[in-house]
Each structure stands twice: as structure tokens, then as C-alpha cells.
Design goal:
alpha+beta, two-stranded antiparallel sheet, five-stranded antiparallel β-sheet, 7 strands, elongated, 264 residues
């Protein structure tokens, strides 16, 4: 299926070469001379055609990985797939195949992705990646003490902020902290969806930290979660049922990674 797309592209290249060649010949006939530096039409070099084919194959390959990330992720979750790593594991080498005059076996690569991430395997990968994002986000270690009050389970995340350029008297997340906040929210959203906290999952997924401005000690309120924002940290206050479920989620899907952080 996917390999056939490459065959179709090669056929299109052949047809294009013939069409371009016809224009070159027509120009020669009109001016009664050969191809000169003043010619309007350029004949496409073999190198350019090869590069065009390789670019198409690589773009198609990236699209396959994106499709697998979407298709094999659990509902409301996501999977990060390392394209180069999976290519090595599958034995597919696009450049080598093209140099030998062969069509890269992208159907075989897709079958590898299906075996690796399809069904429960993909869900497991997504949950492990979410647990890792949460552990990294709150800088958790095996000996981290989780604060628990009568109303909440509390975790703190370092988030650097600066004075807002757009809203006087307000603050905004410093650019170096933006991706870390996004990753933490994504991880929490995946956890929330798995444990049936649907409203919280949707709220976290739809929240945009890039447009956020806030005052010190201002709060963000979600279903089962309140976040108090300070200048250099955010305090996440989870309702007890959410916090307890989060602890179970990390124990089930992040235990190995959490244990490895003892070395840091």
C-alpha cells in the first residue's frame, strides 16, 4: 500500500521527465539551435530527480510515524515514536534501498509499527511515556515525600516566569519552562483519561500555557485539580481521589524509570 505510493511517484517522475524533454525539444525547434545558456527550459539532472525521490520517501516515512502515533495511542493519549530507532529495529534503510535502485519497503516498516505499538502494546507505551513526563515534571525520586493535607495531595513543579511583555503587572512563563509545562500537562491528561477523570483530561488537553498571563499566587482551577502559580514554582493541589489514582498510575507505569532516578 505505502510502497505502491513510491512506485506511483516514480512513474510520475518518468512522465514528467518525458514532458520536460518535449518542451526542451520544442524550444530547440523554435530557435533552430541546441541547448544554450540562454535556453528558457532546463533539463532536470539525474541528481535532482534522485533527491526528489528520496525527499518524497522520507516525507512519506515521517507521515507513517505520525499516523502510527495517532492510530495506536489510547483514547485521549499520545505516543512518541522515535523514527530512527524504529527504522533500525525494522531493518528498513531508505537511502540504501534507493542507492541500490530498489523501492524502500515502507509496507514492511508499517507492519513493524503495528507489531510494536498496536493494541495493548501501544497503550502501555503511551502510559509509560506519560508517567515519565509526570515524574520528570515534578522531579520525583524514589524518596520524594508527597505532601498530603486534609483537602489535597500536593506536588510542586519548578516553573520560571518573567514580567509579561503584553500585560502590565502580569507574569508569563519563561520560554525555557514552556515545553516542560506542556509535557507535564500532557502526561497528566493521559493519566486522567485512563483513570476516568474525563473532565480533567479534557481541560488539561485544551489549556494553552503559551497564552497564559498571571499574578503571583493566582490560581488555575480544573476538575479535581487546583494550581497555585508563584514566580518560580507552581503548586499542584490534587483532590484526594485524583492524587491517589496518580500515585497508582506512577507505581504501575513509572516504577522502573522512577527507580533509575536514584542515580541522579
Amino acid at each position: 500500500m505505502y510502497t505502491q505510493l513510491i512506485e506511483q511517484f516514480k512513474t510520475a517522475q518518468t512522465a514528467a521527465a518525458a514532458a520536460y524533454g518535449a518542451v526542451v525539444q520544442a524550444e530547440r525547434d523554435v530557435f533552430s539551435d541546441g541547448l544554450t545558456e540562454y535556453s528558457a527550459m532546463e533539463a532536470r539532472s539525474e541528481y535532482k530527480v534522485e533527491r526528489e525521490l528520496e525527499t518524497f520517501c522520507l516525507r512519506l516515512l515521517s507521515r507513517l510515524v505520525m499516523e502510527a502515533s495517532r492510530k495506536f495511542a489510547p483514547a485521549g493519549g499520545r505516543i512518541e515514536i522515535d523514527q530512527n530507532h524504529e527504522l533500525d529495529r525494522s531493518g528498513v534503510d531508505v537511502g540504501q534501498a534507493l542507492r541500490k535502485g530498489n523501492v524502500p519497503d515502507l509496507d514492511g516498516f508499517w507492519q513493524h509499527l503495528e507489531r510494536t505499538f498496536g493494541g495493548e502494546a501501544g497503550e502501555r507505551v503511551a502510559f509509560e511515556q506519560a508517567a515519565k513526563a509526570i515524574i520528570n515534571g515534578f522531579w520525583l525520586k524514589p524518596d520524594t515525600e508527597i505532601k498530603r493535607t486534609s483537602s489535597a495531595v500536593i506536588l510542586e513543579k519548578r516553573v520560571t516566569s518573567q514580567s509579561s511583555f503584553h500585560s502590565k503587572g502580569q507574569r508569563e512563563v519563561y520560554y525555557s519552562s514552556l515545553q516542560a509545562v506542556v509535557s507535564t500537562f500532557d502526561g497528566l491528561a493521559t493519566f486522567a483519561k485512563k483513570h476516568q477523570f474525563g473532565a480533567l483530561a479534557m481541560q488539561l488537553r485544551n489549556f494553552s500555557v503559551h497564552r497564559l498571563t498571571f499574578s503571583t499566587r493566582e490560581k488555575l482551577s480544573f476538575t479535581g485539580l487546583e494550581i497555585v502559580m508563584f514566580n518560580d514554582k507552581w503548586q499542584f493541589k490534587f483532590a484526594h481521589d485524583v492524587g491517589d489514582a496518580l500515585s497508582l498510575f506512577i507505581s504501575e507505569f513509572g516504577a522502573e524509570y522512577l527507580a533509575s532516578r536514584d542515580r541522579y
